[in-house]
Amino acid sequence: MLSGPNMLTFIIIPILCYLIGAIPTGVLLTKLAGLEDIRSTGSGNIGATNVYRVGGRRLGILTLLGDALKGLLPMLLFAAATDYSDLRLGWIALALFLGHCYPVYLGFKGGKGVATALGIYLVLSPLAVLIAFATFATLLWKWRYVSLGSVTAAAVIPFLVLAFERSLPLFIATLAISGMVIFRHRANIERLRSGTESKFKA
After folding, report:
1. Are 27 and 39 in contact, with CB atoms under 8 Å apart?
2. What is the spatial distance between Cα 36 and Cα 69, in angstroms, rounded to a whole number?
3. What is the pLDDT of residues 64-77, one digit of tens each?
4. Backbone phi and psi for residue 44, each to the nearest 5 degrees, phi listed first
5. What is the reported pLDDT for 2?
6. pLDDT of residue 124
7. Which positions ≥6 away from 144 have C-beta within 8 Å?
8. Cβ pair 113, 46 in contact under 8 A
9. CA-CA distances (angstroms) from residue 157 to 122, 171, 177?
10. What's the DSSP call for residue 127?
11. What pLDDT does residue 202 have?
12. Phi and psi (nearest 5°) for 42?
Protein backbone atom coordinates (compact mmCIF):
# COMPACT_ATOMS: atom_id res chain seq x y z
CA MET A 1 0.00 0.00 0.00
CA LEU A 2 1.31 3.47 -0.92
CA SER A 3 2.30 5.74 1.94
CA GLY A 4 1.44 9.46 2.01
CA PRO A 5 4.54 10.77 0.18
CA ASN A 6 4.48 7.95 -2.38
CA MET A 7 0.78 8.49 -3.05
CA LEU A 8 1.47 12.18 -3.63
CA THR A 9 4.29 11.35 -6.04
CA PHE A 10 2.74 8.54 -8.03
CA ILE A 11 -0.97 9.44 -8.03
CA ILE A 12 -1.92 12.97 -6.99
CA ILE A 13 0.90 14.94 -8.64
CA PRO A 14 0.63 13.05 -11.97
CA ILE A 15 -3.13 13.71 -12.00
CA LEU A 16 -2.50 17.43 -11.48
CA CYS A 17 0.12 17.34 -14.23
CA TYR A 18 -2.32 15.59 -16.54
CA LEU A 19 -4.85 18.38 -15.94
CA ILE A 20 -2.20 20.99 -16.72
CA GLY A 21 -1.16 19.19 -19.89
CA ALA A 22 -4.82 18.95 -20.90
CA ILE A 23 -5.25 22.75 -21.13
CA PRO A 24 -6.16 23.25 -24.83
CA THR A 25 -3.97 26.22 -25.73
CA GLY A 26 -4.89 26.37 -29.40
CA VAL A 27 -8.64 26.16 -28.73
CA LEU A 28 -8.51 28.89 -26.09
CA LEU A 29 -6.36 31.26 -28.14
CA THR A 30 -8.45 30.97 -31.30
CA LYS A 31 -11.65 31.51 -29.31
CA LEU A 32 -10.15 34.59 -27.66
CA ALA A 33 -9.21 35.84 -31.14
CA GLY A 34 -12.84 35.49 -32.24
CA LEU A 35 -12.19 32.64 -34.68
CA GLU A 36 -14.39 29.59 -35.10
CA ASP A 37 -13.54 26.39 -33.28
CA ILE A 38 -10.11 25.29 -34.54
CA ARG A 39 -11.31 21.68 -34.35
CA SER A 40 -13.73 22.33 -37.22
CA THR A 41 -11.33 24.19 -39.52
CA GLY A 42 -8.19 23.31 -41.43
CA SER A 43 -6.92 19.87 -40.45
CA GLY A 44 -9.07 19.92 -37.30
CA ASN A 45 -6.02 19.58 -35.09
CA ILE A 46 -5.64 21.84 -32.04
CA GLY A 47 -1.86 22.19 -32.40
CA ALA A 48 0.32 25.09 -33.50
CA THR A 49 0.60 24.08 -37.17
CA ASN A 50 -3.15 24.14 -37.77
CA VAL A 51 -3.57 27.31 -35.70
CA TYR A 52 -0.81 28.91 -37.81
CA ARG A 53 -2.57 27.98 -41.03
CA VAL A 54 -6.00 29.08 -39.86
CA GLY A 55 -5.27 31.99 -37.51
CA GLY A 56 -1.93 33.30 -38.74
CA ARG A 57 1.64 33.45 -37.53
CA ARG A 58 1.04 35.23 -34.23
CA LEU A 59 -1.55 32.74 -32.96
CA GLY A 60 0.49 29.84 -34.26
CA ILE A 61 3.58 30.95 -32.35
CA LEU A 62 1.58 31.62 -29.18
CA THR A 63 0.04 28.15 -29.39
CA LEU A 64 3.47 26.60 -29.86
CA LEU A 65 4.81 28.47 -26.83
CA GLY A 66 1.78 27.67 -24.69
CA ASP A 67 1.86 23.97 -25.50
CA ALA A 68 5.61 23.82 -24.88
CA LEU A 69 5.32 25.66 -21.56
CA LYS A 70 2.73 23.12 -20.37
CA GLY A 71 5.50 20.58 -20.51
CA LEU A 72 8.43 22.80 -19.58
CA LEU A 73 7.26 24.60 -16.43
CA PRO A 74 5.96 21.62 -14.42
CA MET A 75 9.03 19.61 -15.38
CA LEU A 76 11.31 22.44 -14.23
CA LEU A 77 9.44 22.63 -10.94
CA PHE A 78 9.77 18.94 -10.16
CA ALA A 79 13.29 18.58 -11.56
CA ALA A 80 14.36 21.27 -9.06
CA ALA A 81 13.10 19.06 -6.22
CA THR A 82 16.17 17.15 -5.08
CA ASP A 83 14.18 14.07 -4.01
CA TYR A 84 12.71 13.47 -7.47
CA SER A 85 14.34 10.50 -9.16
CA ASP A 86 14.46 9.89 -12.92
CA LEU A 87 11.65 7.37 -12.48
CA ARG A 88 9.39 9.99 -10.90
CA LEU A 89 10.30 12.60 -13.51
CA GLY A 90 9.53 10.12 -16.27
CA TRP A 91 6.12 9.39 -14.73
CA ILE A 92 5.32 13.12 -14.52
CA ALA A 93 6.49 13.63 -18.12
CA LEU A 94 4.10 10.93 -19.31
CA ALA A 95 1.21 12.49 -17.36
CA LEU A 96 1.81 15.91 -18.91
CA PHE A 97 2.04 14.46 -22.40
CA LEU A 98 -1.07 12.31 -22.05
CA GLY A 99 -2.95 15.37 -20.84
CA HIS A 100 -2.20 17.19 -24.08
CA CYS A 101 -3.01 14.23 -26.33
CA TYR A 102 -6.12 13.10 -24.45
CA PRO A 103 -7.52 16.19 -22.67
CA VAL A 104 -10.49 15.61 -20.41
CA TYR A 105 -11.73 19.11 -21.27
CA LEU A 106 -12.19 18.18 -24.95
CA GLY A 107 -13.60 14.70 -24.64
CA PHE A 108 -10.11 13.18 -24.73
CA LYS A 109 -9.45 14.41 -28.28
CA GLY A 110 -6.28 16.49 -28.25
CA GLY A 111 -3.22 17.38 -30.27
CA LYS A 112 -0.29 15.37 -31.56
CA GLY A 113 1.97 16.38 -28.70
CA VAL A 114 5.08 17.68 -30.47
CA ALA A 115 5.30 21.05 -28.67
CA THR A 116 4.46 19.61 -25.24
CA ALA A 117 7.02 16.85 -25.77
CA LEU A 118 9.54 19.56 -26.71
CA GLY A 119 8.96 21.34 -23.40
CA ILE A 120 9.39 18.08 -21.51
CA TYR A 121 12.53 17.10 -23.39
CA LEU A 122 14.12 20.52 -22.82
CA VAL A 123 14.21 19.72 -19.10
CA LEU A 124 15.17 16.06 -19.40
CA SER A 125 18.00 16.50 -21.91
CA PRO A 126 18.74 19.89 -23.54
CA LEU A 127 21.56 18.44 -25.65
CA ALA A 128 19.26 15.80 -27.08
CA VAL A 129 16.75 18.52 -27.98
CA LEU A 130 19.44 20.59 -29.70
CA ILE A 131 20.39 17.74 -32.03
CA ALA A 132 16.78 16.68 -32.62
CA PHE A 133 15.80 20.27 -33.40
CA ALA A 134 18.64 20.56 -35.90
CA THR A 135 17.30 17.40 -37.55
CA PHE A 136 13.76 18.82 -37.60
CA ALA A 137 14.89 22.19 -39.00
CA THR A 138 17.01 20.58 -41.71
CA LEU A 139 14.17 18.38 -42.93
CA LEU A 140 11.67 21.24 -42.78
CA TRP A 141 14.01 23.52 -44.75
CA LYS A 142 14.70 20.89 -47.40
CA TRP A 143 11.25 19.37 -47.92
CA ARG A 144 8.82 21.79 -46.17
CA TYR A 145 6.94 19.04 -44.34
CA VAL A 146 6.38 19.77 -40.64
CA SER A 147 5.18 16.22 -40.09
CA LEU A 148 8.33 14.69 -41.59
CA GLY A 149 10.57 16.77 -39.35
CA SER A 150 8.43 16.06 -36.28
CA VAL A 151 8.30 12.30 -36.79
CA THR A 152 12.00 12.02 -37.52
CA ALA A 153 12.98 14.13 -34.51
CA ALA A 154 10.64 12.08 -32.31
CA ALA A 155 12.21 8.86 -33.56
CA VAL A 156 15.79 9.87 -32.71
CA ILE A 157 15.38 11.76 -29.45
CA PRO A 158 14.91 8.79 -27.05
CA PHE A 159 18.24 7.37 -28.19
CA LEU A 160 19.88 10.77 -27.80
CA VAL A 161 18.45 10.97 -24.27
CA LEU A 162 19.90 7.54 -23.52
CA ALA A 163 23.29 8.53 -24.94
CA PHE A 164 23.54 11.83 -23.05
CA GLU A 165 21.70 11.07 -19.81
CA ARG A 166 22.44 7.33 -19.47
CA SER A 167 19.16 6.83 -17.63
CA LEU A 168 16.94 3.84 -18.37
CA PRO A 169 13.79 5.39 -16.78
CA LEU A 170 14.17 8.55 -18.88
CA PHE A 171 14.84 6.48 -21.99
CA ILE A 172 11.68 4.45 -21.42
CA ALA A 173 9.61 7.58 -20.74
CA THR A 174 10.89 9.41 -23.83
CA LEU A 175 10.52 6.27 -25.94
CA ALA A 176 6.87 6.02 -24.89
CA ILE A 177 6.24 9.72 -25.58
CA SER A 178 7.97 9.64 -28.95
CA GLY A 179 6.14 6.45 -29.87
CA MET A 180 2.83 8.21 -29.20
CA VAL A 181 3.94 11.26 -31.21
CA ILE A 182 4.70 9.02 -34.20
CA PHE A 183 1.46 7.06 -33.73
CA ARG A 184 -0.58 10.27 -33.70
CA HIS A 185 1.08 11.28 -36.97
CA ARG A 186 0.02 8.08 -38.72
CA ALA A 187 -2.36 9.94 -41.08
CA ASN A 188 0.43 12.37 -41.95
CA ILE A 189 2.80 9.46 -42.61
CA GLU A 190 0.29 7.92 -44.98
CA ARG A 191 -0.08 11.26 -46.81
CA LEU A 192 3.70 11.58 -47.02
CA ARG A 193 3.84 8.14 -48.60
CA SER A 194 1.12 9.04 -51.10
CA GLY A 195 2.54 12.51 -51.83
CA THR A 196 -0.55 14.38 -50.65
CA GLU A 197 0.80 15.91 -47.41
CA SER A 198 0.52 19.71 -47.23
CA LYS A 199 3.78 21.64 -47.28
CA PHE A 200 4.53 24.37 -44.76
CA LYS A 201 4.47 27.91 -46.16
CA ALA A 202 6.34 30.54 -44.16
Report:
1. yes
2. 24
3. 999 999 999 999 99
4. 85, -5
5. 52
6. 95
7. 199, 200, 201
8. no
9. 11, 9, 10
10. H
11. 63
12. 60, -130
Quick: pLDDT tens for 185-196.
Answer: 999 999 999 999
Distance between CA 84 and CA 200 in Å, rounded? 40
- Write down the pLDDT at residue 9: 67
Q: What is the pTM of this model?
A: 0.92
By the 8 A CB rule, do 120 and 17 touch?
no
Distance between CA 10 and CA 177 in Å, rounded?
18
What pLDDT shows up at residue 50?
93
b/e for 7-29, b at 16 or more Cβ within 10 A? eebeeebbebbbebbbbbbbbeb
Cβ proximity of 51 and 26 under 8 Å: yes
- Rounded to 10 degrees, the C-alpha dihedral 135/136/141/147 comes to 140
The helix/strand/coil state of 195 is coil
Provide mean pLDDT across the span 182-186.
95
Query: Is 143 in contact with 135 (CB distance < 8 Å)?
Result: no
Residue partners of 189: CB distance under 8 A and separation at least 6: 147, 151, 182
Q: Which amino acid is at 73?
A: L
